[in-house]
């Protein structure tokens, strides 16, 4: 059985068709990269699948069950977690306390019960998670004082504490320096392999995509114009013209 399946999934914003009848099937254990130029519909797709944006029409099946119309929390509880383009940490709390909060949320604790998640066992589990992501040395630092790459890792670690079976990452390397991006992705992938979670991530950096994924979905103007192994998709002339080329020229313009 597939982990995720969308059927004719569509979202419009007025006259803009941000997702046009998307049929996507993701199998267990796949690591899938989603690429596309600005405005191609990547975030719209992730937001619909995770319940942050209602679909205009179509269906979304997670492990064979429709999650259409469910709230983000309900979808997370079913085992489909996500991280955001900007790390969603409580800046004044320490990194350890952020992970403890995520552990409490994963157990659906009420605020009055949060104290129960500061047990020696919970702290040990939180430290183990930080260790798995290579950021244990930041455990007692305030989240706002931690470098961007490490903050992103903590954010992704927090998405994994609920032990999801599928993880959606929106631009894990955005805002991260060139030096940090491969160590960050190595740490994420090591943790992902350990947990066996299926991953789909949006990524603008083709070097990152090529290195870490087994399959690419290329979006353009709300449609998927190519779907397959990295070499085939990145070598596809339409992808080169409409996705890779556009990104390269946008970068050149920005540098000019
Ligand atoms: N809330 C909204 N209201 C109106 N239009 C929207 C809204 N969200 C997205 N759109 C439009 O839908 C289209 C797809 O946008 P989306 O953000 O999904 O693209 P993207 O591929 O994630 O782009 P980026 O790489 O810039 O994040 C764009 O034309 C965008 O302007």
UniProtKB/TrEMBL annotation:
InterPro entries: AAA+_ATPase, ABC_AA/LPS_Transport, ABC_transporter-like_ATP-bd, P-loop_NTPase. GO terms for biological process: D-alanine transmembrane transport; L-alanine transport; L-isoleucine import across plasma membrane; L-valine import across plasma membrane. It holds the Pfam family ABC_tran. Keywords: ATP-binding, Cell membrane, Membrane, Nucleotide-binding, Transport. CDD domains: ABC_Mj1267_LivG_branched. The keyword Manganese does not apply. The keyword Cell membrane applies. GO terms for molecular function: ATP binding; ATP hydrolysis activity; L-isoleucine transmembrane transporter activity; L-phenylalanine transmembrane transporter activity; L-valine transmembrane transporter activity. SMART domains: AAA. GO terms for cellular component: plasma membrane. Residues 4-246 form the ABC transporter domain. This is Branched-chain amino acid transport system ATP-binding protein. The lineage of its organism: Bacteria, Pseudomonadati, Pseudomonadota, Betaproteobacteria, Burkholderiales.
């Amino acid at each position: 059985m597939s982990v995720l399946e969308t059927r004719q999934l569509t979202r419009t914003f007025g006259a803009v068709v941000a997702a046009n009848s998307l049929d996507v099937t993701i199998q267990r254990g796949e690591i899938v990269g989603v690429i596309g130029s600005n405005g191609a519909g990547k975030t719209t797709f992730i937001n619909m699948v995770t319940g942050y944006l209602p679909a205009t029409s179509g269906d979304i099946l997670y492990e064979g069950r429709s999650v259409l119309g469910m709230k983000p929390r309900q979808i997370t509880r079913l085992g489909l977690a996500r991280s955001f383009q900007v790390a969603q940490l409580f800046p004044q709390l320490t990194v350890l306390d952020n992970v403890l909060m995520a552990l409490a949320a994963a157990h659906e604790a009420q605020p009055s019960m949060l104290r129960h998640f500061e047990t020696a066992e919970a702290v040990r589990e939180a430290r183990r998670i930080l260790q798995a992501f290579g950021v244990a040395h930041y455990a007692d630092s305030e989240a706002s004082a931690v470098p961007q790459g490490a903050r992103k890792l903590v954010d992704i670690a927090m998405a994994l504490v609920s032990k999801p079976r599928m993880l959606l990452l929106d631009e894990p390397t955005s805002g991260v320096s060139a030096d940090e991006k491969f160590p960050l992705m190595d740490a994420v992938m090591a943790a992902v392999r350990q947990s066996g979670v299926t991953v789909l991530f949006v990524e603008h950096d083709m070097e990152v995509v090529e290195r870490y994924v087994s399959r690419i979905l290329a979006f353009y103007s709300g449609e998927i114009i190519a779907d397959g192994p990295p070499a085939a998709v990145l070598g596809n002339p339409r992808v080169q013209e409409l996705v890779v080329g556009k990104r390269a020229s946008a970068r050149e313009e920005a540098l000019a």
